[in-house]
Amino acid sequence: MHLKTSIKAIEYYLPPFVEVGSDLVADNPEWRIKDIESKTGILQRHISTTETSVDMGFFAARKILKKYDNADDIDLLILVTQSPLYVLPTSACILQDKLGLKTTCMAFDVNLGCSGFVYALAMCSSLIEAGVASQGLIVCSDTYTKYIESSDRTCRPIFSDGAAATLVVSDVFGSIGPFDLGTDGSGFDKLIVKSATKSNNLINSKLHMNGSAVFMFTMNMVPKSINKLLIKEGIMLTDVDAFIFHQASKLVLDNLIRRLELPKNKVLVNYHKVGNTVSASIPIALKQASDEGKIKEGNTIMLSGFGVGLSWGSCLIKFGQKI
Amino acid sequence: MHLKTSIKAIEYYLPPFVEVGSDLVADNPEWRIKDIESKTGILQRHISTTETSVDMGFFAARKILKKYDNADDIDLLILVTQSPLYVLPTSACILQDKLGLKTTCMAFDVNLGCSGFVYALAMCSSLIEAGVASQGLIVCSDTYTKYIESSDRTCRPIFSDGAAATLVVSDVFGSIGPFDLGTDGSGFDKLIVKSATKSNNLINSKLHMNGSAVFMFTMNMVPKSINKLLIKEGIMLTDVDAFIFHQASKLVLDNLIRRLELPKNKVLVNYHKVGNTVSASIPIALKQASDEGKIKEGNTIMLSGFGVGLSWGSCLIKFGQKI
Q1: Strands A106-111, B106-111: parallel, antiparallel or unpaired by DSSP?
Q2: Per the omega criterion (within 30 degrees of 0), is the bond before A223 cis?
Q3: How far is CA A77 from CA A60, A82, A290, B90, B197, in A?
């Protein structure tokens, strides 16, 4: 169903410190950086230096609060992160206090990666639709680069740090949904940072990605998910004005375009300069596409996130007004 | 509002290994255990040995799936935990696979503690009410004892490991809601396990609780929350058939009873033998109270969880049938 909610605003924060190909080659002289870049399409990555996930989320969300002066209207804060500050408490509590949101505000972290924004849209819209909350702020923020070995050729050329804040409100003009959400936990170890919260011996864990397994999962599940949503909504692929996929890499997006036979101009990408910012990637791409006039209110926009979990989430949205 | 959903079933798992007062004294001969026990009311704690949070959640949820043979009907799995197996992926994915739930099932971890069950009820009910999901399984599971120093007199006598699985379905006879949910992140460091996901140097962190600060927060917020809900629902305190608070300790519950002037027989407690099992404490107490015939379908039951975050959540529920 279409929830009677809409995205009213998106703002984002990308750390100013940037790494380009030559920085990677300086650490890894044997890397053929041009070959890597032609495959990933990613020419630079934002790297958090002093900024934590909460700091980045704060910088993004503060822009919305300044613009709308609505800190007292927000009663739901969802922080999508896999880079929390502590094992406990939930980092969303720290962000609630830092942003000056009222205490009668729900706040919790959701541990999801590249599918996390779409999942959070489902939660946020549903809580508003059901009358539990009235205005929700979804903050997606991750510092994955902290988990990556400098010599990891699979992960380092791809992942970038960043945060996006998305304001969701009741709105009969826009819409959020329907959704197609799923999980294949049999691939839990294909994209993983091991921790030792299950034992007393913490180890300094690093990100491990089985790139080909995640790629196969994506090519298998995402086209099915897109087609299921079109059937659910009773529309054709040509009725969709724009597609915003999780900005995994050029290789992944080119193959999705090919498999789904999508017109390239309808698939909005920003991975070249932004990189793969995990759960923040879809809202950052949405905002940039809106700023560039590539999407506007009333457009039917397909979102699809996929990756760590393994997990995927797709949905259709319409903006009720310019974000 | 009342969501048209209800708790259909609860099952739980408590690790068979139990620590009693003499075990604590063996490690800490200077402890006056009778004084501690008369304050906490907690006479034993369940300690996970080989069981992880996912294992315990699995044991609890499997009982529901066996009873109802409904693994294919569940399309939403919320794992409330602050003891995940990994930094990423979300442990809910591992549980989805282990339980044999279908891949068209949402699955995510929510990082919340003692308020987590009530928060998850809000999310689960709202997602069902909004048509995003049809049957939800809430699994609350924590192994806090792994974070506790053997000599910590504030935490060790209180916290216990355990898991509860709660099945939520559409149901016009029962109800879930209204809710009162809140956050005071200014107290984020009053109950904390520091980790080092914000740096590259992981440290072996332990639970720290400022007992008096958490106590003050609870006495300040919980009575207000209960009274707000009564006003929202338009009922009197005497209209509530049973109160199930987070089983923090005897000291906390006795003071809530005193402040709210509650009849003791309406406040159902199980802390003596179960201990404080964090987010699993309310559903375990609900199930035990139902099994003992102390609550039944149609009863108006007030739930209230509070603690780490700092965060609180209260709600009213009615069972549509015996759980």
Answers
A1: antiparallel
A2: no
A3: 13, 16, 23, 19, 21
Touching A: B residues 131-150, CB under 8 Å: 131-132, 143, 146-147
The pLDDT score that the predictor gives to residue B197 is 38
Q: DSSP code of A150? A: T
- The answer to whether B90 contacts chain A (CB < 8 Å) is yes
Catalytic (active-site) positions of A: 114, 246, 276
Minimal CA–CA distance to A48: which of A125, A187, A141, A131?
Answer: A141
Q: In a 3-state reduction of DSSP, which class is residue A121?
A: helix
Residue of A104, A125, A195 lying closest to B130 (CB–CB): A125
Mean pLDDT by 10 residues, chain B (323 residues): 85 98 98 98 97 97 96 97 94 98 98 98 97 97 94 97 98 94 96 62 73 96 98 97 98 98 97 98 98 96 97 96 91
Within its chain, how far is the Cα of B239 from the centroid?
Answer: 24
**B246 classed as catalytic:** yes
Cβ distance B88 to A122 less than 8 Å, yes or no, reads no
CATH architecture of the domain with residue range A5-172: 3-Layer(aba) Sandwich (3.40)
Task: Find the DSSP H helices in A21-107.
Answer: 21-27, 33-40, 53-68, 91-99
Fold of A177-318: Peroxisomal Thiolase; Chain A, domain 1 (3.40.47)
Distance CA B297, CA A33 (A): 66
- Report chain A (323 residues): mean pLDDT per 10 consecutive residues: 85 98 98 98 97 97 96 97 94 98 98 98 97 97 94 97 98 94 96 62 73 96 98 97 98 98 97 98 98 96 97 96 91
CB distance B185–A93 less than 8 Å?
A: yes
Tokens (6 digits) for B233: 């629902």
Residues whose CB falls within 8 Å of the CB of residue A214, separated by 6 or more in sequence, listed in order: A187, A190, A191, A307, A310
Asked if A231 reaches chain B (Cβ–Cβ under 8 Å), the answer is no
- DSSP three-state, residue A70: coil
3-state secondary structure of A104: coil
pLDDT of residue B55: 97
* Domain residue spans of chain B: 5-172, 177-318
pTM here is 0.96
